[in-house]
Specification:
This protein is of the alpha/beta class and 512 residues long. Helices cover 40% and strands 11% of the residues. The strands form three sheets. A six-stranded parallel sheet has the order 2-3-4-5-6-7. A six-stranded mixed sheet has the order 9-14-13-12-10-11, with helices on one face. A two-stranded parallel sheet has the order 1-8. Helix 1 packs across helix 12 (297-312), helix 4 crosses helix 14 (350-358) and helix 14 crosses helix 18. The radius of gyration is 23 Å and the shape is globular. The chain starts with 9 loop residues before the first helix and ends in a 5-residue tail after the last helix.
Length: 512
Amino acid sequence: MTTLASGTDTLTRDALTVLQPGFTGTTAPDWLLRRLGEGLASVGLFGRNIASPGQLAALTAQLRAERGDVLVAIDEEGGDVTRLEVRNGSSFPGNHALGAVDDVELTRQVAHELGRRLAACGVNLNWAPSADVNSDPRNPVIGVRSFGADTGLAARHTAAYVTGLQSAGVAACTKHFPGHGDTAVDSHHALPRIDVSAEVLAERELAPFRAAIAAGTRAVMSAHILVPALDPERPATLSRRILTGLLREELGYDGLIVTDGMEMRAIAGTYGIERGSVLAIAAGADAICVGGGLADDATVLRLRDALVGAVHAGELPEERLAAAAGRVRALARWTGTKGRPAEDTHGTEIGLHAARRALTVTAAPGLGDPATFKPLTEAPYVAALTPVANIAVGDETPWGVAAELIHLLPGTVTGSFSAGDGPESEAGESAGRAALQAAGPRRIVAVVRDEHRHPWMASALDALLAARPDTVVVEMGVPQAAPRGALHIATHGAARVCGRAAAEVITGAIGR
């Protein structure tokens, strides 16, 4: 194990300790190993770093050969947001599916199994769960990542998720404080603003975070959102009123506070990552998440030097930086006391079980009970009406039902259709006509994701159903639009297991 580099002073080590950088590649680069020797205490992993469980275990072992107590963090929510299974889709449904089932013990079991798999690969900090109450159905970045729009439901499932994950020895990082659900803006692209009263915030947004704190969450992630009722000037990540006054003093939270990714435009486009990082630590954050986009040694050095320079300039109290570094080390000590849980053979199918329970199946008006639907026995055409993926989900991870239908009905054909660049109504009609032409005489399965947020998607479905009323519709986002089609299946998420569960209903292959 490498010791701290000679000449690296306490202040510089503390500045490195509070950073959670990323890197490229499936093995640790030399610069990262060198910084671990100089005081860096955390590393963030993304889909680009993972090829297989065995490779991931080797990578985390490589990191621990340099620093045995390193925090290895990952953004593994399950469902739509997966890094472990970025190339195939998750074996676990996401929060919205679990909220649709509303069985807190099931949520705990799913989170435990997810945590067990992370721990087996050497990951000990998960930037999850999302505790956001998805109160704005137009929300472009939370959506199915939320347990739902009901505050009580979100609170009890957030607590269950934290409990399950941490029972596997992986620290939970509950996000996005003080709540990113009531916004129609994605903070990856701009600075969202939530204009509700402090009373509404206390009753709605904060309830899941109170539940997470009561459940013992080891970390909380801040949101890059402006909440004027709490602080009219600075976004939560940079607000002392919110991070110290509200989260620490009012809610009594004493664990690690992690920022959301500092290269997101809500911060990088307004304050810059160096100034933003200094302000975040000064406000009460303990760890700076960076590396989703900027993933190199130069970024680490820029942030390290910005923090050290701010202390020398009197802009950041040295004791505040030291306290932040101390909380990082305290979390590392907690993870070091947790042994890896034994494999639970009963938990390996828990994801598919949960996905099946989450389905809402509705027959077309006039057709009565969905049980009267006759399962498909011949290979269909799957028309995926595909929206632009948000950055949190990414466009690497496959979604839909085609792969599972191909398995159950060999010969299934699929095509993807999008809005293009024209007016949405024309784009939708064009996509619908194109899908009809491509399908030919085959039965059509139309797959959508948040139909209610995409007028072009609704128009495409109009065209498909007008010509082919026997079309089966699968909604893999938030099911806000009215059910339609010969059969409508709401999966409450686009994880691979959600596609499997829907395909079983379409083919009548449940249990096969």
